[in-house]
């Protein structure tokens, strides 16, 4: 502490320790967040515990978070390798999302509500 | 560094840059308190707005304030200089008095203290 550089060194090291402590407190604070669930959604397909993701989107803080899509295409391929999807009665679409913190737990929230789709008995060919 | 030193004018070279021990202790205490204070305020504000960047910005202003206060060697950190013994020449004489005479004529404690 007798020279400028030694004082600078201790101040800098102290600041880094304080920032580490703040980050840890931020991490702890995420355990106390609860999340509101909205009502209208659809996306991941669920069939008897087989799940695939059909669509996703990253929304950053400040961006519009009310999404309203009509007749959108799926974002990822959705293949049926067997015959499991023909005439399937319980194809369910649900929406869930991760809340990404700066530091902390990564909760996955599932939206309330889901959409059930019944697949037809016959295959069709051609593009839609 | 020494080469640059020779170019610095005399008046700037004579500016004191040291702190005495009590000043160092006070400087360290000041910056620790200031940074902790700004960290606490910043954390509370960041929790309210849910933006960690706000916490860090408030902390950095605290770091800048405490840097200005404690890194620069202000005069207030030189208020308790060490009390050195006066200088002696090779005969043991100080500038103002001769050395104290041999101990056989007086009762003295082990440590001689020069009065000035």
Question: How would you describe what is shown here?
Answer:
The complex is a heterodimer of chains A (128) and B (116). By secondary structure, chain A is α+β, with helices and mostly antiparallel strands. Chain A folds into two domains: 32 residues; 96 residues, no CATH class. Helices cover 20% and strands 16% of the residues of chain A. Chain A has one helix and six strands. A four-stranded antiparallel β-sheet of chain A has the order 2-1-3-6, with no helix packed on it. In chain A, strands 4-5 form a two-stranded antiparallel sheet. Chain A is elongated. The termini of chain A are far apart. Chain B has 116 residues and is mainly α. The longest helix of chain B is centred in the N-terminal third of the chain and has 29 residues. Chain B is elongated, with a radius of gyration of 25 Å. The mean pLDDT of chain B is 84. Classes of the chains: A alpha+beta (128), B mainly alpha (116). Chains A and B meet through helix 1 of A and helix 3 and helix 4 of B. Chain A: It is found in: Endoplasmic reticulum membrane. Chain A: Belongs to the SPCS3 family.
């Amino acid at each position: 502490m007798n020279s400028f550089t030694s004082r600078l060194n201790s101040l800098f090291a102290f600041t880094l320790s304080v920032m580490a402590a703040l980050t840890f407190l931020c991490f702890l604070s995420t355990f106390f967040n609860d999340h509101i669930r909205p009502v209208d959604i659809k996306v991941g397909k669920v069939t008897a515990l087989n799940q695939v993701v059909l669509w996703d989107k990253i929304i950053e803080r400040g961006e519009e978070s009310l999404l309203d899509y009509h007749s959108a295409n799926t974002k990822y391929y959705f293949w049926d390798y067997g015959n499991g999807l023909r005439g399937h009665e319980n194809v369910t679409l649900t929406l869930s999302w991760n809340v990404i913190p700066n530091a902390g737990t990564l909760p996955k929230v599932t939206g309330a509500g889901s959409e059930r789709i019944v697949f037809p008995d016959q295959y069709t060919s051609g593009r839609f | 560094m020494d080469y640059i030193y020779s170019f610095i004018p005399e008046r700037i070279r004579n500016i004191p840059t040291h702190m005495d021990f009590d000043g160092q202790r006070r400087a360290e205490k000041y910056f620790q308190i200031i940074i902790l204070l700004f960290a606490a305020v910043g954390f509370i504000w960041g929790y309210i707005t849910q933006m960690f960047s706000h916490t860090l910005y408030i902390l950095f202003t605290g770091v800048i304030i405490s840097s200005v206060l404690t890194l620069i060697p202000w005069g207030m950190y030189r208020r308790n200089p060490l009390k050195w013994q006066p200088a002696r020449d090779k005969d043991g004489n100080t500038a103002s008095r001769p050395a104290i005479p041999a101990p056989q004529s007086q009762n003295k404690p082990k440590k001689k203290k020069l009065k000035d």
